[in-house]
Amino acid sequence: MFDLVVRSRRVVTPEGERPAAVAVRDGRIAALHPYEAPLETAEDVDLRALPLLPGLVDTHVHVNEPGRAHWEGFASATRAAAAGGVTTIVDMPLNSVPPTVTPDALDAKLRAAQGRCHVDTAFWGGAVPGNVEHLRPLHERGVRGFKCFLSPSGVEEFPPLRPEEARRAMAEIAGFGGLLVVHAEDPALLAEPAGPSYREFLESRPGAAERSAVELVIRLAEETGARVHVLHVSSAACLEPLEEARARGVPVTAETCPHYLTLAAEQVPEGDTSFKCCPPIRDGANRDLLWDGLARGVLDCVVSDHSPSTADLKVPDFAAAWGGVASLQLGLPAVWTEASRRGYGPADVARWMSTRPAAIAGIPRKGAVEPGNDADLVAFDPDAANPVDARALHHRNPVTPYHGRTLRGAVLTTWLRGRPVDGEPHGTFLLGDT
């Protein structure tokens, strides 16, 4: 007897799409049976020709609670995640107060999140100047790795690491087999924008600054043996050093984000700072190269970098506005809109947005529709028109560059460990090997 059976002629598995009946017992995928197999179950859902995807794993989410919950809190962020087919998030350590750079700060984060999560939630710790002694204790408490900046973060309580500090943190992290995730921009190559326009903002953060920082991260990884992950790659200039490092066996992975794959600098309306993020959205030719890097596996995954703020911080001046794109609920349809246009299928999107993020962050039983995994599932209509109204999203603040756009594809149902996400928070904390 099963608790749930979900049937689809297009179940997206690690081997590709296949007709199957996904049988669920006690929150786990018990078996994949033939699509038309008669099965004894409490509930039987037949999606027919609609794809069934693994729940997405978004490893780059700024929740901001405690301390800045008016920007985004656990209840609103995880509701938005579930509505977008995301069943696991990993919370970034900065923008909350205190930032997650000590065990006590992690405790504060856990208290703030307790009973408020609609999806499963894991946590990154932070690597900042002077906290090397806290890295191993945070690792032992179950954080997935450590976030650092090589350039200013935008909040004074989370300062960047200088190269020697980064080397020291990486040596410590290598000692216990951890992971460092890096905001890679070289501060020496950044400048203050010359004016309020998007063009001036873009010129102030050139692709060369990303590449220089990525090259530094690779050198330090080779010196220390640390495993590193490059966050939110926006510049195709980073692809060459990443590919060469992989060929040498350097343990480096990299991600990009929906806004870099679906938006382009020439489309940014003047004064619309919902598009502002760091590193910035670059031109259409660069976007094409990022898609090529993703297809070749130089870029491993696509995650949101959901970095929201209140609307008043998005002043119509690209030099002064807060930098961050709010898109947690929209990542899947945004990426699918562009991916399908370029000839990619649901299996590609599942690999980029579920399987690979789970593997990089070391989250077991997530990221694939296969027996033994958690029954995190998404019924997805790939052809549905999806007009975006920022006011209708579950994000805390109605700010997103996708407002007014019509995306392709809609999430119909999200199951977390075999239960539909229906408004009652039943997410769990994923700490350590959980």
Automatic annotation (TrEMBL):
UniProt KW Ligase keyword: no
Coiled-coil regions listed: none
EC number(s) recorded for this UniProt protein: 3.5.2.5
GO BP terms in the entry: allantoin catabolic process; purine nucleobase catabolic process
Keywords linked to the UniProt accession: Hydrolase, Metal-binding, Purine metabolism, Zinc
Pathway the protein acts in: Nitrogen metabolism; (S)-allantoin degradation; allantoate from (S)-allantoin: step 1/1
Gene Ontology MF annotations: allantoinase activity; cobalt ion binding; zinc ion binding
Protein name per the record: allantoinase
Native source species: Nonomuraea montanisoli
